[in-house]
Write a structure and sequence with these properties.
Elements (H helix, E strand, L loop, with lengths): L1 H18 L5 H32 L21 E5 L2 E2 L4 E4 L6 E6 L8 E10 L10 E7 L16 E8 L14 E8 L14 E6 L9 E8 L2 E7 L7 E7 L1 E2 L5 E7 L6 E11 L6 H4 L8 E2 L16 H35 L3
Antiparallel strand pairs: 1-4, 2-3, 3-15, 4-14, 5-10, 5-15, 6-7, 6-14, 7-8, 8-9, 10-11, 11-12, 13-16
Length: about 350
């Protein structure tokens, strides 16, 4: 009985081998060995790729979970300032309360020439659209740990500022939608103009609907060979979208990374989940290697970013009411004038009687 069952089970396999000789038992064994070898080689390659990324992530410049000793331990590489506080899930720069300022700053100056910074952040709160504020900023500046009016940091800074602005201060918003991410290069004399949402000093930017998003929100800053690129991922598509690209931009080394935020009459929660910095390996020509390092940030062709911010003109409704009240005013003056003239003429007539 057992023998008959075994034969019946082998019959389909034998017929299959007769039809397809390449799948006979002697041939299958080498194929299996080849398949195993390919799988092992692939897994090793993936592991090597992972190690490659880990090798070039510079932990001394990075902020990521777990935030052990952040701001308190002498071994920590980051300092907290203002209302910033550490939770298990994020570094909260400001809570959803009015008139708060908070920041986190690296203690170690960045000495890399080519780098990439990936920031995982979150902005959320109870306020309705355009009734929230003010936003957060990512910094690479000469000075650190200084309070001020520019998203919680000093004005007239020296270095790079990237602003995630959630509230439109300017009356005219037809040229952009908020939240809006913009970049500014400060040389120690330029001021960020909050009333105009930084337009006069902006060197690039884009709209990024990052507030109260159901997806994780990221921005990526890449600096290599005097080129600064800004990309965003706020749509949950797991892909980077171009935001700004500036060539001929020169940044000194030895500046400090940081993030800050501020709230005023309006507020939001502003959280930093991680700031991971990667060193980029870039081939340079001998001329590029000998290129003189700058001490003050600059852009080779800054004139291309100069924005003529014109005074706001009157809207159609404002013009209509201005014209209407002007006509009514002239009418009133005309009636008063006629009444005065009539009385003067009547008094003059009485004198002759």
């Amino acid at each position: 009985m057992v023998a008959s069952v075994t034969k019946s089970q082998r019959a389909p396999f034998r017929s299959f081998c007769v039809l397809f000789p390449m799948f006979r038992l002697k041939t299958i064994r080498p194929l299996i060995c080849l398949l195993v070898t390919v799988c092992v080689w692939t897994s090793q390659s993936l592991a090597e790729d992972t190690d490659f990324m880990e090798e070039f992530m510079k932990r001394e410049y990075s902020l990521a979970k777990p935030y052990r000793g952040l701001g308190f331990s002498s071994s920590s590489q980051w300092d907290l300032m203002g209302t910033a506080m550490v939770t298990p899930d994020q570094v909260r720069l400001t809570p959803d309360l009015q008139s708060r300022q908070g920041a986190v700053w690296s203690r170690i100056p960045l000495v890399l020439r080519d780098w990439e910074l990936k920031v995982h952040f979150k902005i959320h709160g109870q306020g309705k659209k355009n009734l929230n504020g003010d936003g957060l900023a990512i910094w690479l500046t000469r000075d650190r740990m200084l309070n001020g009016p520019v998203f919680g940091n000093m004005n007239q800074f020296t270095g790079l500022g990237i602003f995630v602005d959630t509230y439109p201060n300017a009356d005219r918003t037809h040229d952009r939608t908020f939240p809006y991410i913009s970049m500014m290069l400060g040389n120690g004399t330029l001021s960020y103009d909050h009333d105009r949402d930084g337009r006069p000093t902006e060197i690039g930017g884009c709209t990024a609907l990052a507030r109260n998003s159901v997806h994780d929100t990221f921005l990526l800053v890449r600096y290599s060979k005097n080129r600064l690129t800004l990309l965003v991922d706020v749509d949950g598509k797991q892909e980077w979208r171009d935001c700004a690209d500036v060539t001929g931009l020169r940044l000194p080394t030895g500046y400090f990374l940081g993030a800050s935020s501020a709230t005023g009459d309006l507020s939001d929660n502003h959280d930093i989940i991680s700031m991971k910095l990667y060193q980029l390996t870039v081939e340079r020509t001998p001329e590029e290697e000998e290129e003189e390092e700058v001490t003050i940030p600059r852009v080779d062709n800054m004139e291309q970013f100069q924005v003529e911010v014109e005074e706001e003109g009157m809207s159609g409704v404002q013009f209509f009411f201005t014209l209407l009240f002007s006509i009514l005013g002239l009418g009133v003056l005309a009636v008063v004038g006629l009444m005065v003239y009539g009385r003067w003429k009547e008094n003059k007539r009485k004198r002759f009687y």
